[in-house]
Every structure is written in structure tokens, then in C-alpha cells.
Amino acid sequence: MPKQIHLAAHFPGVNNTTVWSDPAAGSHIEFDSFVKLAQTAERAKFDFFFLAEGLRLREQGGQIYDLDVVGRPDTFTVLAALAAVTTHLGLAGTINSTFNEPYEVARQFASLDHLSDGRAAWNVVTSWDAFTGENFRRGGFLAEGDRYTRATQFLETAKELFDSWPADAIAADKANGVFLRDPHAGEFRHTDQHFDIAGRFNVPRSPQGRPVILQAGDSDAGREFAAATADAIFSRHGTLQEGQKFYADVKGRLATYGRERDELLVLPAATFVLGDTDTDAQEKARIVRKQQVSGATAIKFLEQLWNRDLSAYDPDGPLPEVDPDVSDQHIARGRASVRMHRDPIAVANEWRERATAEKLSIRELIIEVTGRQTFIGSATTVADSINELVQQDASDGFILVPHVTPGGLDEFADTVVPLLQERGVFRTEYSGPTLRDHLGLAVPDRPIREVA
């Protein structure tokens, strides 16, 4: 029996995969764009729609980074609105555990799960940089090494709040209206290193019990956090060998926490370029990469490694002869990839050698080293590639990131999905109403707890 493939759609927002110059490109902030992508994903029977979140506009060289000028609307606001225009599609959002509080986040996700009839998912992320923290009361207070400790305690606290209501706590009759069967419903008390809270949670147990928990960390601490707490983990390892290595690693950690292998799904992010033939798709992919990396964008990427102002350099010229600045004063602020490489000088020398050997300009080199096209080919080729990676335990499915928003998923939905359905590895109809149904996850048990 072949494994069933899980697919999700990522609204790309602001990043270097987006082709802004394409005539089909639309707004990244108007609601119609979110509706278009979400409804296409639902038409194709995807598991969920995923919305990332940025808590501050990034800067480079003291100026707002050019890919961020559109900004980011609030995650909960968008997902709650999408709940009204979709019926089965899961609604997943990134919410930071460093700059929020458990009660507030638990209340928002429990509300979203009710509004959507059980389709909410929470991508739990951390942040340690003081630059982002300047937007918040506790800006910069948390050491990098403590971020997963807080995240673990944050999630455990939120779960206690989700579980504080018995499923049958509410009753109703015609004479007396709605009343509580359990007078202690919602009561909670939690004390640890980061949180000391007590009270009564004011949202009854939601259709899924708790939202589906997603996690995106790739470090050893991030993988351990996912193995202990998450229902699915995102991954950047989309090739067969690297994917199998990551898959085996995170799945192998589950037994330590009394969990089975199918209780954590591995979902790498993936881009795609489709064509009538493989050759046609390769040519389209080349054009897309040139659109994604303009001359100005190439210089911005080079500056992130060199940690210097390189605006005077010609993107169609050679790489700088000067070495990267390895000081702690970074030219880029608010980017997870500020220090992409542990040894910038070694990487710069590798790039120089490659540029010389292949006669590449700055822009041509950046196109090569930042390439993010996972699947390139005809619909048949892409369907075969996706299926092989899933069946060979390199993943359980993929988070698809189109390069055109909001219509970039249409071709995949119309051509690749039917082929996967014909192979019997992807659903033709939703089997249940909740996101846990789509992902094959059980509703978590509500533990019996005493509130002191």
C-alpha cells in the first residue's frame, strides 16, 4: 500500500522566490490574493494553507530591505477571514513564542479552531535577535540559548490551557439555556522558569482539542523540540539523500518521547516550475531564476555574506577581491540568514573559485548558489518526483511555494494533482472535516489534571 502524499500551500509573502515583475503577479496584502491561493489549494484537496509571519521589516545597510516593502498583515486576522471562505482547507499560521504570551496565543488559536470547525494549525517559532525584539516590551531580553527552553514551556502552558475544558463541560436545555456541567472548567495554574499564571481559560475545548502543532527548526535543539511536541516539522532538505537523512533523524527521536513514527510528519518546502516538456520547464526555470535575482538583488545577497556595502560593484562584473568583514556588526538586521555561513571567508573563496572556473558574474553566481527550484519538469515528471521522494521516506509530502502570487498554484492543481490522484497516492475528496483528519492525526487525549 503506497504512502499517501500530504500537500500544503505556502503564501510566500516577501522573499526572494517571488517574481514581482511577472504580469500575473498580484498584491501580497490585499485579501483577494489570500482568497485566490487558499481556494485553489482547497479545490486541489490540499491539507492546509500556510501563512508565515514577520514581526519587523528587515533592514540592510540601514535601509528597509527591498523585498520587505510590502509589509505583512496580521496572521490571525487573515486566517480568521479565510475560515469564512473555505470549508475543508486547514489554516496554519506562524506565531512567535518569544514575543507573545501563552494565554493570548492559546485563546486566539482556540478561537480560530472554533471559527473554522477544527482546521487550525500553529507553527511554533522562536526569535532571539534584539532587533526584532525592539518592537516588543521585552526586546532582546532572551539569550539565544534559552529560546527553545521558553518555546517548550510556552507550548506546554498553551496545551494546559487548551486542555483545561472537558469536551462535555457545556450543557444546554430549553428551560435553562447554556450552563457549565463542570464548575472547574477552564481553571489553570502554571509556574515555571518563564511563566507564572493562574486563572480560568475562557474558550471551551475546540473541535480538534488542540490546534495541529507545526515546527520549522533544523538545529539539533529544533529537531528535538519537534520530536517531543510537534505534529509536523518543516524541512529545507528536499533531495532524496538529504531528505532521507533528515527524515530518519527526526523520526528516530520519537521513541524517546513515547511516540510512533506516524505521529510526526516531515514536510519540506518546495518550489516548482512546470512546462509542456522537461526541456520547456528547464527554460522556464532559467527565466524565473533571472527574474528572481535582479542585479540589485544579487548585490544585496552578496552583501549578506561579505558584510560590507557593495553597492559600487557591478552585478555583471567579478566578485570583490576584498574579503568579507567577520565582525559582529552585521550589515543586515532582522534576517534569520544574517550569518548564513560559519566561515564567511572560506565560503567567499569557494565562490571565487567557482566564478572563475565557470566564468560567472556576481549575478550569475548568486543565481546559482541561491537556486531554490525543487521540482522542474512536465507535470508527469514532477508528479513522479514527488511520489518517489515520499515513497522512499525522504518526506511525507511538501509545502509548495509558488513563485507567482496569487495564481501560481493553478497549473500545479490542474495538472500534477490529477496525476497523483490517478496513482492512488493523493486524495480525491476530503475524508473528514478537520485538519487532523487530513493529516491522519488523532485528537489528543485530555489529561486528567488537578489545579492547585
From TrEMBL:
Give TM regions.
none
Which residues belong to any copy of the Luciferase-like domain?
21-391
GO MF: monooxygenase activity
What Pfam family is a match, any one? Answer: Bac_luciferase
Q: Which SUPFAM superfamilies match?
A: Bacterial luciferase-like
The source's superkingdom equals: Bacteria
Q: Which residues form a coiled coil?
A: none
What's its EC?
1.14.-.-
User: What UniProt keywords are attached to this protein's entry?
Assistant: Flavoprotein, FMN, Monooxygenase, Oxidoreductase
* Top EC class of this enzyme: oxidoreductase
Family assignment from sequence similarity: Belongs to the NtaA/SnaA/DszA monooxygenase family.
What's the protein name?
A: NtaA/DmoA family FMN-dependent monooxygenase
